[in-house]
Specification:
Blueprint lengths: L5 E2 L4 E4 L4 E3 L3 E4 L2 E4 L3 E9 L4 E7 L13 E9 L3 E9 L2 E12 L22 E8 L6 E4 L6 E4 L9 E4 L2 E3 L6 E3 L7 H8 L2
Length: 200
Amino acid sequence: MAAPTICTPGQRICRLEEGQVAGSGTDVRQGYLYSCLAGYVNVREGDGESGKTVIEVLTEKKHNIVPSVGSLVTCRVTNVNPRFCKCAILGVDNMPLKESFRGLVRKEDVRATEKDRVEMYKSFRPGDLVIARVLSLGDAQSYLLTTAENELGVVAAVSEAGVNMVPVSWNEMICPKTMSKEFRKVAKVQPQYIDNTTAT
């Protein structure tokens, strides 16, 4: 019987052969190896002083979750053009992701007021760390995101001088080194949103 790659608690993994030993996350019953955890099977050949093969069950440290409509996401801006900006979603509702998802903030979803006056280059720059909300699942390639709330927008940005900038208003950040100001759609960060930025 071939060992399954992914297993659940109580699932039979394989028959324990000579030269094999049960590792962490497993249990032996009547000559068969069973999983005690939800995770994936890891086989370590010739492990330890005994030289025997260890079969164990490991769990992922990061959560295998996906964004859903209304979820709060932490993302990094990867590309900006006059109509929208592309993002890599790094975390969902305070949970870091194992793999990033693609997100899109359209010009009309940047802020709630004066949508026709929004300039994408004055709202986001590549590399900015942004808190956004999932607006819809979009197409097969990316999630549609919105920053049209006071608490959403840029929470961390680096100036042209390579220094972390400090927010001075809802649409400006300043470089402490050169004292030059740059436009951004700045988030009014609340305590419940802070963990999202530190989780990544």
